[in-house]
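Margin note: ligand = succinic acid.
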Amino acid sequence: MALKLRKLSYALGAEVCDVDVAKPMSEARFGEIYQAFLSYGILLFRNQDITREQHIEFSRRFGELDRHDALPRDRHPDYPEILLVTNEPKPDGSPSDSRYTGRQWHSDMSFTPVPSLGSLLRGITVPEVGGDTVFANMYLAYETLSGGMKKMIAGLHGVHRSGTRKINNPESGVPRAEEQRRLNPPIAQPVVRVHPETGRKALYLGDKVKRFDGMTEEESRPLIDYLNKHATRFEFIYRHQWRSNDIVVWDNRCTMHLALGDFDETQRRHMERTTVLGTPSGYVVADA
Ligand code: SIN
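Resulting structure:
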């Protein structure tokens, strides 16, 4: 039987219907899912009441998994392949380190020399309302730029820094900012990336980019702001309203995303992510 897909928005995303990711799956069936992943950028699987082992096992079909050495505070203590995105306090009652994860437009691990191919996020406990994730189609963002703009940005590299949301948040603090700087020096990534599998060009930017390599922040800011604003136009996005046991898989090479903080923080939002390693990209720059 052919894979049953339902489009999620005009710009990107499809729900894969009637698939249980924990059940044995033939190569042919996974091949269809992978083709849909390349075509739609985001896939949604509903009602996946699975274990961590099953989450990891299914994720491995997409490629080798990151063990999250770049984000050691947020990985699960017993499952390094799982990154926690949670506002559940720590066992000692102190606030979770990952409660603000993803609250900026970004593509996962862009601040490392091996940015991610894709991520699989499982919604476990979700707030009654809000806490949505918004995704942007970065192929469309690139393709709808003028020829002049495409020429102007062709050779540019954006300097990506890790932990910018947390660094800018006095509450979650300076020690974390320093740790992030030590673990993840700034990396320059091409502003236009060619997707290694589809061959299509995509914009590669977001709020972790503070300047272009070879330019000051002041010089870079207007163009970064313009491109991010353009990329996140309503026409280019899909906003996902989570249900518990949803798994959303996204292609980090042609999408970016943002976790909205639009929910009652007294309610729990507990998500777990696996991150599929991509191919090496970018170069380290001095943090000037
Ligand atoms: C992430 O950026 O990986 C987390 C997104 C989310 O929690 O919605």
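Residues 21 and 234 are 31 Å apart (CA to CA).
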